[in-house]
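An example makes the point: we let one protein speak, the chain in one-letter code, the fold tokenised, and here it is:
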Amino acid sequence: MTDLALPAPLPRERKKFDYSKLVDGFFFLTICSGSIVFIEPSPYDLLILITLGLWIVGGFVIQRAVFPFILFLELWTFGGFLALIPYWHEADPVDFMFHTLFITSTGVFFALFLSQHTGRRLELLLTGYTISCVAAAAIAVMTWFGAFGAGEDWIKDGRAMAPFKDPNVLGSYLITGLLYLTQRLLLGRRRLVWLTLPSLALVLTALFLSFSRGSWGAAMVSLVMTVGFLLGTADSGRMRLRIASGAAGVLLLLAVGLSAALSVESVREFFFQRAAVTQDYDEGPNGRFGNQIRSLPMLLERPLGFGPLRFRLVFGLEPHNSYINAFASNGWLGGFSFIMLTLTTIFVGFRQSLTRHPWTRPAQVLFAATFAFFLQGLQIDLDHWRMFYVSLGAVWGIEGARRRWLSQGQTA
């Protein structure tokens, strides 16, 4: 008998370490932590620094289509530093401008980061952001109803705000999650409908309990935009019918929930008080709108504006208008740059949302949220809102990916 030689075992292939997954993992954790901001520095601030460092070490590409965004954003910031020069010895304006530099840098990061591996990273962004919205909504609702012993500490003048420091920020933060959950329902993605519907109801409840007029208005405008974008880019008449009927169902759910809430007398009185077009602090020559009007001729005479954080010293109140504040804090250079940033973003956002490309659906959510923020800028100062730079950078990241896709000869 002859011995049969057994075949030598094949060498095992070593699994290569995927550095991009490490970066994406920290990116996902960063987005999930975005709603926990009642402590400073927040987990988001620490995680975004780690993510930025890992991303830079791994190398990155700058898409030419993102240049306008970077240019206008940095000119706006540079204008603020120019306006800061006479007040460089004051701690608060200096801290304010370095915070501005940091947070605008995150906007640049989101644009460049999402312009590569765009589909996967947009899914991480929207999933992580929605998780953070649902978590924030759960905390807000439970604290408002007093489920926590210290719940009253997380409520401001009867308005839910946890885990933020301001009810207006809570309400506005929830908008992107609201749009994403609504889009999933309207597109008929039934696999996780058992999770999507309760999450949507929770987010809507927290948005209502914030009693934020600006957030309510922004949510309504952005929801109409998202539904309009879906109808305009639907594949067939059947899909349009499904989207329209789904939107009617969401509207009915909203009406039923609102009716139930307003059946409570104390809630109804507070709702109509907050829903008024103007409040006491808005009216009069020294109110919010009076200060804004009085500031205009003064700003026309000051190329450097008043300087960072100095509007409040001149008028006793914050400007509560991001466009006026851009001129007041960042001078003419910053003011006009912010306006150009707004106009160019609106242009590319509508183009993304109404044309076919691989990222049309995420663009419709993220641009609608960004447009809502721009509208809110007319009645609130959002230049230090983290979520503003997330959606703003995402719109431009999608633009970079879309332009690269077109340059490769792809067609819609």
The chain has 15 helices and two strands. The chain has a mean pLDDT of 89. Strands lie at 155-156, 159-160.
